[in-house]
Specification:
The chain is mostly helical. It has two domains: 27-107, DksA, coiled-coil domain (Four Helix Bundle (Hemerythrin (Met), subunit A)), CATH 1.20.120.910; 109-147, no CATH class. It is 65% helix and 0% strand. It has five helices and no strands. It has helices spanning 2-8, 30-61, 68-103, 119-124, 132-146. The radius of gyration is 20 Å and the shape is elongated.
Length: 147
């Protein structure tokens, strides 16, 4: 019976258990929206804490090294951190947009074709705004146009 034990201990997403749909439950009803609101707010909070840690780290580590190689290494490290924080800043904006969609009761449907995105996809990527099929097509088009 070890497989049953494994099934009961599924990995959590951002410290949350995956949403368990109840038979006959309305898609994106109040409980489902509440779950994704909690997940997104926790994710946003974690990102904001990381931003604060970066600022503190850069303040603490900022030094005027006399050796040009040491100075260059520090500048490169800071540049990498700032790039990561910029990506996180953009993600925070997307999380805010997604939270607004939940509030407006428009979350969970593909912005391209209007079908349900699906709970499993949203658990994997809570900010998803397209179903798998539309996202795949968009990525193919992007590759063709972008190159």
């Amino acid at each position: 019976m070890p497989t049953q034990a494994k099934q009961q201990h599924q990995p959590t997403i951002s410290g949350f258990e995956p949403y368990k749909e109840v038979a006959g439950e309305e898609y994106m009803g109040k409980p489902m929206r509440a779950h994704f609101t909690k997940v997104l707010n926790k994710w946003k909070q974690d990102l904001m804490q990381e931003v604060d840690r970066t600022v503190d780290h850069m303040k603490d580590e900022a030094a005027n090294f006399p050796d040009p190689a040491d100075r260059a290494s520090q500048e490169e490290e800071f540049a990498l951190e700032l790039r990561a924080r910029d990506r996180e800043r953009k993600l925070i904006k997307k999380i805010d947009k997604t939270l607004q969609l939940i509030e407006d009761e428009e979350y969970g449907w593909c912005e391209s074709c209007g079908v349900e995105i699906g709970v499993k996809r949203l658990e994997a990527r809570p900010t998803a705004d397209m179903c798998v099929d539309c996202k795949t097509l968009a990525e193919i088009k992007e590759k063709q146009v972008g190159k």
